Amino acid sequence: MPETTEKKKVILSAIQPSGTITLGNYLGALRNWVKLQEDYHCIFAVADLHAITVRQEPKTFRQNILNAYALLLACGIDPTKSPVFIQSHVHTHAELAWLLNCYTQFGELSRMTQFKDKSQKHSDNVNAGLFTYPTLMAADILLYQADMVPVGADQKQHLEIARNIAERFNGIYGNTFKLPEPYIAQVGARVMSLQDPTKKMSKSDENVNSWVAVLDKPETIMKKFKRAVTDSDTVVCVGEGKDGINNLIGIMSAVTGKTSEEITAEFEGKGYGDFKAAVGEAVIEELRPIQERFNDYINNKDYLVEQYRKGSEFALKLSQRTLDKAMKKIGFIAK
Ligand code: AQP
User: Fold this and answer.
1) Which amino acid residue places its CA nearest to atom 8 of ligand 1?
2) Distance 28 CA to ligand 1 centre (A)
């Protein structure tokens, strides 16, 4: 476990096991999280409580939670340096979320675009959890007095509301929660769907060709890239109305480190077909070592159990302090 005596800034990052982890999650989040471990005091979580805002099939859900955990390690997160825990194992999250619900207004939750999107997508299951998702996310962050939270563009609104709730609480009771700042990564900020490049690549998208999973087999990855939606132009370059190609160039650039100009020069005179195959090949090579490490971890369940138990022990100790402080300020009686 990390030494908490050093004054490194605290960063809290979490991923939902709501499906199989995608290339979008990897390039936009996981890969950057690995680098953060050097300079920050990082805490990672598999946010399984969040995932049930959408109906999960129990057996698949169980596997997705463990897979997400193993994948975090396979991507390079070192649990001996940065605690990695499973959210439902640390009861303070659900408890603080309830308290924060009582300091959050109906109106501000109604304005969340993710709620609007997801309630449209799952109109048969617009549950209260989907609505109060941001207060649970606020609890996740505020419990650890996090200085920063890496967020994609899609999650900025949720961080904003976490800050508003914290500010409101602090305003009533005095300083209780640290106000977290967004940490925006430079590379791979947004990977778009391969089938509708105006939408972000999402692991819960029912169209399996719209996303590439980090654990997809090489031939599946290649097939998905070859089927990627592009446009009627033929030149591999960034341009308006070329959302599909822009996305593929973004992915190629994130994976190889080449600029879009270098990529355009490399593919001069070649068609989209050649380019799509090259992107597929580059992604396959990027993911190959991760898949190998993932297979080692997932076949070593004892190690995973040992690590997630240590992670939750650490997380509980740290988060309990904040929960106790908040409860005392509200006026609850200590046990
Ligand atoms: N397409 C993306 N491009 C870049 N970053 C992305 N992230 C997600 N999709 C992309 C980032 O991954 C981190 C973990 O995401 P999450 O699992 O907590 O939730 P999410 O953003 O809702 O991810 P999904 O894949 O879209 O899940 P579902 O389909 O369940 O809603 C976050 O940092 C996120 O920004």
Assistant:
1) 25
2) 8
Atom of ligand 1 nearest to the CA of 47: 18
Atom number of ligand 1 nearest to Cα 150? 33
Strands of the 148-150 sheet, one edge to the other: 84-86, 41-46, 10-15, 148-150, 181-183
Question: CB of 25 closer than 6 A to ligand 1?
Answer: yes
Residue ranges and CATH numbers for the domains of the chain are 10-188+301-330 (3.40.50.620), 208-294 (1.10.240.10)
The answer to pTM > 0.85 is yes
> Does 24 contact ligand 1 (Cβ within 6 A)?
yes
Ligand 1 atom 24: residue of nearest CA: 202
Query: What b/e readout covers 285-300, taking b as 16+ CB neighbours within 10 angstroms?
Result: ebbeebbebbeebbee
d(CA 171, CA 173): 6
The alpha carbon of 302 and the centre of ligand 1 are apart by a number of angstroms equal to 28
312 Cβ below 6 A of ligand 1? no
Q: How many CA atoms lie within 13 A of 215 on its CB side?
A: 15
b/e per residue, 48-72, with b = 16+ CB within 10 A?
bbbbebbebeeeebeebbbbbbbbb
Q: What is the pLDDT of residues 63-96, one digit of tens each?
A: 999 999 999 999 999 999 999 999 999 999 999 9
Instruction: Sort residue 235 into left (φ over 0), alpha (ψ -120 to 50) or beta.
Output: beta
Q: What is the DSSP string of 36-69?
A: HHHHSEEEEEE-HHHHTTS---HHHHHHHHHHHH
